[in-house]
Write the structure tokens for this entry.
Amino acid sequence: MSSKINSKGGTASSDTVTVVVGYPCPQCGVAKPARYQVEDHHQSAHGEPIQTTDIIKNTRELEHDDLMKSVYKLNKQARKYADLAEYNYKIGKKATAKANSVRKKALYDLKTDILSLLYRSDVVDSIRCHKINNRLYWLFEMESWSFHVPVDHLDIDTTDVANPNDPVELVDFHKSQKANRTSRSLKESLLFIQNKLDLSANDYLSQSHLKYGCDSYFAGWSYLD
Ligand SMILES: [Zn+2]
């Protein structure tokens, strides 16, 4: 068993973290999240096995707070899109509600992938199990920052969880989340994530274009790849 919880004994100082952004194939450069996936890819794409020792992980040194603020901002914005989608649907603006909803899902899915990346990189300090409105979540804690993700969205080793069989029930959770911890914009946050983690929110859109009357327009963020 190998724990993915940061033991504080690694190379990361408290100001920076080393994040594994992926394992590129030495032959064609395509990056995969895990070593075994490069082995599978190499066998099927290049027709021969590859030595595990030839697969070198690609890491980035990041400012811890920059990373946390960016995830925080996109999480907050996702919740805003969720509220907007509900509101616009109620007042009959169905096309706008659909646009809000597509962006909401893209941001939540991007957040889940980032948390998965941080977990695999041993950057997470602790994981707890929470129950909010009858749904189970993992609570990821990294220094003074914390993020929830539904347990069915992210596979983790339950031996890394402090209370795997004894979830803490939270009531009125969203009401207590009004404080804003960063003035960083969504654009700044998404560009940071794209540049530092090679993840573009546009790749998470369930559909790239939306219809509005007889027009069609891009559903994502034009400043991203
Ligand atoms: Zn390849």
The beta strands are 16-24, 31-32, 58-63, 126-132, 135-142, 145-150, 168-170, 209-212, 215-218. The mean pLDDT is 91.
